[in-house]
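A reminder before we start the practical. When you read a complex entry, don't treat the lines as separate problems. The point of joint prediction is that each chain is placed relative to the others, so the output describes one connected object in space. Small molecules and nucleic acid strands, if listed, are placed in the same frame. In the example below there are two entries. Take a minute to note the order of the lines before looking further.
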Amino acid sequence: MLSVDNLVVRYGAVSAVRDLSLKVGRGELVALLGPNGAGKSSTINALTGLVTPASGRIVLDGQDISRVRTEDRIRAGLTSTPEGRHIFANLTVGENLRLGAATRRDPKGVRGDIDRFLALFPVLSERYGQAAGTLSGGEQQMLAISRSLMSRPKLLLLDEPSLGLAPKIVERIFDFIGELKREGLTLLVVEQNARQALRFADRVYVVSAGTLRYEGPPAELADEHGLFNLYIGG
Amino acid sequence: MDYALQQLLNALAFGAEYSLVALGLAVVFSIMGLVNFAHGEIIGVSAYSVFLAAALGLTSPVVAVLLAVAAAALAAVAFERVAFRPVRYAPTTTGLLTAFGVSIVVQNLFMLLISPKPQSVSILNGLNQMWFVGPFAVSSLQVMELIVSGLTILALVLFLNRSTLGLAIRAASRDFATVRLMGIKANRVIATAFAISGALAGIAAVFIIARRGSVSPDLGFSLVLKAFVACVIGGFGSLAGAAAGGMLLGFIEVGLLVALPQEYGGFKDALTYAIIVALLVYRPEGLLGQRVELGDKEI
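Here is the predicted structure of the whole assembly.
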């Protein structure tokens, strides 16, 4: 589904990502773990095209999208729920969901999807006409993921879905992520919260200082205690 | 009574015109952070298009009005495509200097290609008549200006609240990167904002031509300064603020004109700006502006 080869991201003289390669297979949930500043978000932003990589190749479904603009990558079936949620605070919950479906031309299907997410997250239904900025952090995260799914992506990138949320809410968000995987969606989840991310992950990549340190199944990562502690923390 | 009504209408009409132009500045500023000082030249292009069409034999005022609005919208989109797009991601000051550059180039083109002197345009003079409503004499132009501005603002509000592109413009005013993550084309959002900005300027141009009966190269420049002030009063970037600020500016100006004895009339502008400075000391973010908190990871 997604294959990244030798990705390099630089901000001026600083290298955020150095020669990173990874693959996400169809229907897989892949976790990208690492400490703060490891280059996880830079990788995601390079995948969506919001930052331009210095070099490297990004292939989505056999199509090289390295030089494709952000908006056309979304149209090609990739989407991302950014770190910090980035809901449109001045728009209502409903308007946020509508914008998520901006690339679609089937009003009936869009309406159906909105109803589905409102049923799934009743709190969004209660606050449908309210400014999204008035939602709590957890509610905003539910809205942000729902908004991403409105475009019916083939591949969803989730950047730190647990950031700043209470443990109970994090649990709930990851239950939902597990649900999406069961429905057949392909996901790449970037996290600092390793325990939650490993619950549903098929494979794990660990990055630190912009370089890949581990690649393999989650069980082995848990076994290699040194690595786990060094890069992720207990 | 007649005098009071006349002055009220005056204030409303001036306010409406400032609001239209200020809204045009605010729509572009809200999503691009660009203070488009070439906005006055969009009004200029619109006015000179009508002048040229009339010189070439156009006689229909309706066609002239449509031409004014279309020419302004096209000019705004063209300015963006040619001048502002290449500096879109440059620092704000680059955009500001570019806008001044466009303004100077276009004003000089008017001077070189047409004339530095005001040129008479009479095609829209028919809009400016005296209407008698009961015992009152009112200017038809002012009544129309008020109604048309009101309808235009209503249409803009509907567009921004109902259409996907309108929602995208509102969203982009806070978070452009995430709008692109929705698969919405950045160029389309920006071109639409410029087209709206231009159309608003074109509508203002119609009223300016009808009132003055002439066009000159610096026609829009002082109006854009007033509109800039209106935006500052209302809170820069806030559309409701721009409309409210324009209206308030109209009322302050006409109010001072009425209140000041004739021999002190020259102080009108100084007092206007003194009131605005006092207002900003009290509310630095403007009447309807908000202090926007920027995230720590803005892209």
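Discuss with your neighbour: The interface with chain B takes residues 41, 45, 48, 50-51, 69-72, 74-75, 79-80, 82-84, 86, 88-91, 95, 98-100, 102-103, 147-148, 151 of chain A (CB under 8 Å). What might explain this?
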